[in-house]
User: What shape does this take?
Amino acid sequence: MSRPSRAVRLDGAASRPIPRRALLVPATTLSLQLAACSSRAHSSTPEGVVREFVERMRRVQGDPADAKAAYELLSKNAQANLKARAERYSAASGKAIAPEAMIVPSLFFLRFEPQRYRARISGGYALVEVQGLLPEERAQIQCVLEEDGWRLDLQMPPLPPIQTRPRENE
Assistant: This one.
């Protein structure tokens, strides 16, 4: 059982005990507010969301929670594409797979270490140029502004239509 904390008044006298549970609630509320501010901060600019995506992808090492965190930074179109791929894989293999599991960490590698992020914004779209140390170390990432902030609009090839073989008796 925990002992209650004692608050000390300015005149040096001890006041009534403060239960630890009373201290826990404000601390928990504060940490949740800070987490919410942090999650909004990276999506408030195109540069921020690209930087955060790179950091989250570095952490993805087979942990589904890390993959989901990176997946959440993708645009709705990119998420829909990954969802369609996951559904197709699940139907073909008989194993259910989450859309975020389609992000393969072993295929993600940085061609260079990002040093600078610069965005060109046009309405609800942005092109973020990522630069490394050398002049040839450059990449451009498309972003889109959605209701919950900036998201990476990764361009993936469209899924080809499902082909079926004609049956012999048709």
